[in-house]
Specification:
Structural class: mainly alpha
Number of helices: 13
Radius of gyration: 21 Å
Strand content: under 5%
Helix content: 55-70%
């Protein structure tokens, strides 16, 4: 919220794209806006311009979770009827990890990135479909060529990831590459060869990744260049290093251990639900 207040104050001073958080650390300042992507703090500041500050976090969470649910609804409608897709949307928006972010972590940029995950999967599936749309079962319309649209939509989604949360963007890009390879391998197994129908989606996925980075370059390039302005070793201090944050890891920090136990329990429960759902769907 301090970041949102800072951004709104700089907007009022005529600074459209803040680069330096002057009020951070009791007036010493911080290069916060060089590295934090702009989507979340822009939304927070915009809400602060129209609502009382006490209402802003709740309004932010409501908007973001609604977007996450809408994205999951659009993905689920590819296979499910509307009532089931609505259930999937609500279940995704209010899943335990999202509630953990809302009520414990307040990692609002990470929460905003959750709205992009269903869209990434949807775009990849569209990218790997045949070149023609399926005909409309109700109106009997002729199938239409998809053309370049799936590649464009995927690039826009990946650009939005870079502008939302950098760690989430990295995970989204790893997931995109992994899913693209998995879909290509499935197609190759079906065709029994690595022909053009197998390689074309991979090439288009790579093109979408490059286009997405290009669209977000106004944030990415300065952040990459200006890394030398800060002490990056502090990013990986004890407690936030990867090796300190595996499931049920304990270190010499009771607060860290308490949170890690909670999030590990949530993760294990979600994995268990997923395994049971897969087993149940195959059985029933």
């Amino acid at each position: 919220m301090f970041s949102w207040m800072e951004v709104l104050g700089q907007w009022k001073d005529g600074i459209a794209y803040p680069r330096w958080a002057a009020l951070a650390h009791w007036g010493y300042g911080e290069a916060r806006f060089l590295f934090y992507p702009p989507a979340s703090w822009t939304l927070g500041a915009a809400l602060g311009a129209t609502l009382p500050w006490k209402m802003v976090p709740g309004a932010y969470c409501w908007i973001v979770l609604t977007l996450a649910g809408a994205a999951m609804y659009r993905l689920a409608r590819e296979w499910l009827p509307a009532p089931d897709a609505l259930f999937a949307a609500v279940f995704y928006a209010l899943n335990p990890y999202h509630l953990l972010i809302v009520y414990w972590r307040s990692a609002y940029a990470e929460l905003l990135a959750a709205a992009l995950l269903p869209l990434v999967l949807l775009c990849l599936l569209r990218l790997n479909e045949p070149a023609l749309d399926k005909p409309d079962s109700v109106g009997g319309e002729e199938p239409r060529k998809r053309g370049f649209r799936p590649t464009l939509w995927l690039s826009l989604t990946l650009a939005a990831a870079w502008l939302t949360n950098a760690p989430a963007a990295l995970m989204i890009h790893y997931s995109t590459a992994g899913l693209a390879l998995l879909l290509a391998a499935r197609e190759a197994a079906r065709e029994r060869s690595w022909g053009p129908r197998t390689w074309r989606p991979l090439v288009r996925t790579a093109l979408a990744i490059l286009m997405g980075a290009g669209l977000a370059s106004f944030y990415l390039l300065p952040a990459i260049y200006e890394q030398g302005w800060i002490n990056l070793s502090e990013v990986l201090s004890p407690g936030v290093r990867p090796q300190d944050n595996f499931l049920f890891t304990t270190i010499a920090d009771p607060d860290h251990n308490r949170f890690n136990l909670l999030v590990s329990t949530v993760a294990l429960a979600e994995i268990g639900v997923l395994v049971f759902a897969i087993w149940g769907s195959r059985r029933w």
